[in-house]
Structures are given as C-alpha cells and as structure tokens.
Amino acid sequence: MTTDQFNEQYAKVQRGAGFIAALDQSGGSTPKALALYGIPENSYSGDEQMFDLVHQMRSRIIASPSFSGDRILGAILFEDTMNREIDGRSTPDYLWNVKQVAPFLKVDKGLADEQDGAQVMKPNPGLDELLGEAKDKGIFGTKMRSVVKLPGAGLQAVVDQQFEIGRQILAAGLLPIIEPEVDIHSPQKGQAEEQLKAAIHAGLDSLGDGQAVMLKLTLPDVADLYRDFVEHPKVVRVVALSGGYSRDESCEKLAAQHGVIASFSRALTEGLTAQQSDEEFDATLDAAIAEIAKASAT
User: Fold this and answer.
1) Which domain holds residue 229?
2) Residues 99, 143, 189, 216: which is the catalytic one?
C-alpha cells in the first residue's frame, strides 16, 4: 500500500459518512453465520467446503450494488477472505479500488478461557508476520476482540492487552481497532462500562505522540457514554458492535450515541439468504445498509 492510499483511507475512515461492515466470522462462528444464511451444517463437510461457502456469501455481499463506499467506510475481513479473490482481484484490492471501502483484517486467534470475569485473547506469536503480509496485500487496519463479562481485574487485563498489541500493530504501519466487548447479558453491564471507560482513557494516555487508534465498543446502557472518545485526539473513530441485539434494536441504541458509527456483523446480514434471487438479496441488503447508515449519522 502506498502512503497516499493509506492517507486517503485514513481520511475516509476518520471523517466519512457511513459505517464499518464486519464480515469477519472466523472458524468458530462460521457455521452459525452460514445457518442464518440458509445453509445448514449438514449440507457441507470439512473446513475447506465451509470456507468456500462463506466466501461465496461474503463475495455476494461485497459485490452487491448496495455495498459501496458512499455508505460503507470499511469492511473487516477474516484472514481466509483476505487471501481470496472477488471477480479476479484480491479481496482487499477489490474493496478499495472497485468499491472505495477500506479493508481491515481480524488478527486475533480467538479467546482464552475466562478468568476474573473476562476473556483476553489467546497468544499470537505469528502476529508480526501476519501484519507484514496484510500490509503487502493492501490491508489498512486491524481488529481484535476480547470479551468482558464482569467488572474487575479481568477487565483491566483485557484493556492492557488490547493496547499492548495495538502498539505492535501501529509499529507495523496499520491502524488498530481496539475491541474490548462487554457482554450484553452481563448482570453488571453498566458498572463494567464505567470501569472500561476509565481503563480506555488510561490506555489512550499511554499512546505515543502522533499515535491514534479506533475503538469498537458494545452499545452502552447510557446515552453518549463514550462521547469523550468521539472527541479524543488519539481516537480516529468510535464504532459500535451489535453484540447480539437485533438490527432494529441495535440501530435504536446506536442513534442515542452521537458521533458513534456502526460496525455490525450479524445485524448487517440479518435477513439475507442463499435462496434469495439477486434482486431480493440486493433489496434486503440495501434496506439493511440504509437503516444502519441512518443510525450512524446521529
């Protein structure tokens, strides 16, 4: 990726209207994503066939006339998707040069076992190699997910790890999305979000001069809870995950968070099926994108 291209994508992601599409279901979540898309688990065998099918689904979404840079700023990809093609072009190249959508890559290797009410990310010794490969293939930024279920020491460990790896990603020349997801079913969700806010402030303070990150956060219980981050000089953009809420509920909650935009996965693909005609598919996707873009514009 050239410096000019990176700067162009940075400006779009930082100031553009629209949202980030999360198309990064990995090995564990792929069967569920395919089932929702109308392809049951008993209709394919083995990972190779599964990933072929999910790439067909993602390609259909990305190639749809509804999916373009006028409403979508970026798309988060799974590593397998980065290494495949759409219409004869590598997926990152197709996203930017055909659709004007900045490509991001999911770089974590999944979650460790729960400890102290949270799950940090599993060790990732091959990350530097992956970041180099991603940059060579035109990837702009990264995404990595941890999960918080309760306030406490586990939450702090999640944030510390997110920012530690975030600095590694910045050093590789990519823009990290910091994602410490708070479980929407947590019995102490509000308290966890208050602790998370303070921990993220400290993490931002630890960044060097000229360094900035994106934040991907669970839709909070309190309106404008993360407004500080929207206006923070070391935050490029604050995006929200749907976290299991339906699209309607996600959009309603998002509209109350001014300056925060969506980065939805299941809420984006809700209602899409393999059995739909192209016209039905495109119309369903167009309606979803319109609803999410509208909620992201508040």
Assistant:
1) 3-296
2) 216
